[in-house]
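Hi team,

Filling in the usual template for the complex we talked about on Friday. All components are listed, including any nucleic acid strands or ligand strings, so the model treats them as one assembly.

SUBMITTER: L.P.
PURPOSE: interface mapping
COMPONENTS: two
RESIDUES: 554
SEQUENCES:
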Amino acid sequence: MKRLSWLVPFLYVLFLLLPIYWLVSMSFKTTNEILGAFSPWPRTFTFDNYIKIFTDRTWYSGYINSLIYTTVNTVISVVVALPAAYAFSRYRFVGDKHLFFWLLTNRMAPAAVFALPFFQLYSAIELFDTHIAVALAHCLFNIPLAVWILEGFMSAVPRQLDETAYIDGYRFWRFFLRIFLPTIAAGVGVTAFFCFMFSWVELLLAKTLTSVAAKPIAATMTRTASSSGYELGLLAAAGTLTIVPGAFVIYFVRNYIAKGFALGRV
Amino acid sequence: MGKTENQKAWFFVLPVFVLVAFNALIPLMAVVNYSVQETFGNNVFFFEGLKWFEEVLHSDRFHASLLRQLAFTGTILAIEVPLGVAIALSMPRRGPWVSVCLVLMALPLLIPWNVVGAMWNIFALPDIGLLGRMLNGLGFNYNYTQQPFSAWATLIAMDVWHWTSLVVLLAYAGLSAIPDAYYQAAKIDGASSWAVLRHIQLPKMKRVLTIAILLRFMDSFNIYTEPFVLTGGGPGNTTTLLSIDLVKMALGQFDLGRAAAMSIVYFLIILLLSWIFYAAMTREEGRS
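RESULT (copied from the run log):
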């Protein structure tokens, strides 16, 4: 029994890694090798796919665009969510519960439904094909998430901290920036990670709101696929590279991720 | 824990409210607007009242997509939740392996959704994909581009691969919040591991598990990119989930009115089910 209990996790990790292995292994093959015959590992090991991505502007600009709007979105989401989460965790006010639920409902809105109206909205305010458009649009689902996670972290801080600070003569913003924010630093890190992640992986809105100047990497991949046949090796390399930024971020917040969800409330 | 009554708190919430409302309400209004009109292109619209809604609610196509959607969401929840809990239970609780496990688990979550679809698309191809080759080598007749059952199995395997990690992370978070004293007490009482699971671990995980179920429910109901890239809804219409059907209707056939009406019905279904979840959970919390 004890020995068998390792079987499920072992098989699961195998299942987890196989598709990733296949992606990485394809990225070192030539497209001819991928299409020609089945081979479990690269026979003609090549870096060409990666070299092409790093030297061709249409490719690497996709990564830059994605990184820009993802970063802008993360900053906006966290900054506006901080005071809001504080309000939800500390005060009662008219409509607070309804507002909280309404925020959450925006995570439920199917992006596929909103794609066309989003396009019209951002075209109307002349932000179409800019990084800020995508960053703002992603606020739709990232701000509710940020408020939700931060509220959990803030509610875990005893209220005595606030009260003592006020008695000591701290003004609100000074207290908030000097004392409260450092206390929940882990929460801010986790929130930033989740905002980054969801903005990074989202494609539908990002693709709808951009054409050339702010085209995300994921869209670059789909368009290249249709224009020049299937350059599978290149696509695999591009796909592999999309994992890298997230892996970096997660490495920095790895100790707090689990905690972030444990404290979040619904 | 009593919160102070303070209406000025609205000022703190205002930026969030404005930003989210801008992104949520204006497009929603546009959708509502389409849903009561008919268009023949050139921006000419005619008022149609509730015609589209009646049509959608009575259409077999909508019923079929909804049924497929429910089957999909039900299946993935039934697999991902127990599997996620089992994995979380077997993860180490301290030591250097914790970080390795967490980073490993988070990997699928960090891959853009169309890349997930594309990598499974190739991974599962019967002639050049690893999974397709392995399954056919083991004697299964597997070809997801042609057989509905294979397509469904691939779709579900992909979602399990992609999202079980989220349940694992949540369940693990719940587990690590249990004080060691509980386990020691259980050991002194001579409790079996099943009893520990039943009376200590599961109750303590209840809150995070409800979050996990809610998130997975909402996200799987909205799923679009991955199945679109993987199967495109095929073979035939066998894996056409709700959003895929919607986009086909709205952009493929430019049937905006019907698509908008359908999306409102669809949104209301998600809203209703989520509200039931939410109400049930907040009542639980109020009681304890």
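MY TAKE: The radius of gyration of chain A is 22 Å. The domain at 57-263 of chain A is CATH 1.10.3720.10 (MetI-like fold).

Thanks, L.
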